[in-house]
Design brief:
Number of strands: 2
Radius of gyration: 23 Å
């Protein structure tokens, strides 16, 4: 409360002679991610230089003191500015070339998900909703990737002659499209047979172009599945549904043509 009041009232604040920038951190996750990293290395450093007899007294308190000072004076503002810059990039792409941004991200998501890199995008998604009021790039790309995984499974189901495997692919497709659960589709079918991954990438990119050109924008956080489209996108849900339909058909068609 004291910090919020200081930001609103505007008095100059210094910490150990270092000026602290009076900025709010509403919807900002980068500062919260950077500060623990600083604390981690600070604690390791203090553990090396503080004598063992006083470690329990000085290491923890010193970590909090130094990291806290850096958080208010350097790390927090840096995270805020970087976060704003990233939001600005997404805003620029969403306003000027949204079809390129959504298509490129949706096409890369299969590999980002397998590497765990997709989780890093969540902070920017929430930050966009907080700062500009909508997300026209990340959430649409997530939704289109998920349904494209299902579309590729449909393509495999149409191509295979194995009735049991066809039934499995249809189940995986429903899980990815309706529930947004893509790991079984990725590892149980599309990545396993390699070529369907091109169907996923192509379908997601084509669906991304269509949805972006029609103006799909998410206005609240939600899960990336078919059932969540209407509450997430509200007035532009129709554009998202069109993009989803295109992505499913395109990914299924590309996969069917390429085979397994």
């Amino acid at each position: 409360p004291e910090w919020v009041a200081a930001v609103s009232e505007g008095p100059a604040i210094t910490l150990f002679g270092i000026p602290c920038r009076l900025i709010t951190y509403n919807g900002q996750l980068l500062p919260a991610l950077l500060i623990p990293i600083i604390a981690y290395y600070m604690e390791k450093f203090l553990n090396r230089i503080v004598p063992g007899i006083v470690k329990s007294l000085l290491v923890g308190s010193g970590t909090i003191l130094i990291t806290g000072a850096l958080a208010f004076s350097i790390v927090g503002p840096l995270g805020r500015y970087v976060g704003d810059a990233v939001s600005g990039v997404f805003l620029f792409l969403g306003d000027n070339v949204p079809f390129i941004a959504v298509a490129a991200l949706a096409m890369c998501l299969p590999w980002m998900i397998m590497a765990g890199m997709h989780t890093a995008l969540a902070q920017f998604m929430s930050q966009n909703l907080e700062t500009i009021g909508y997300d026209a790039v990340i959430r649409p790309a997530f939704v289109l990737h998920n349904v494209s995984e299902g579309g590729a499974c449909l393509g495999v189901a149409l191509r295979t002659r194995d009735k049991e495997f066809r039934s499995e692919c249809l189940s995986l497709a429903i899980g990815a499209i309706v529930a947004g659960v893509t790991a079984p589709a990725i590892y149980g079918c599309n990545l396993k047979y390699k070529k369907p991954m091109f169907g996923v990438m192509g379908g997601a990119a084509i669906g991304g172009i269509v949805a972006a050109l029609l103006g799909a924008k998410a206005v609240v956080m939600g899960y990336s599945n078919l059932l969540a489209v209407l509450p997430m996108f509200l007035n532009t849900a129709w554009a998202m549904f069109v993009g989803i339909g295109v992505a499913i058909v395109a990914s299924a068609a590309i996969t069917y043509v390429l085979g397994i």
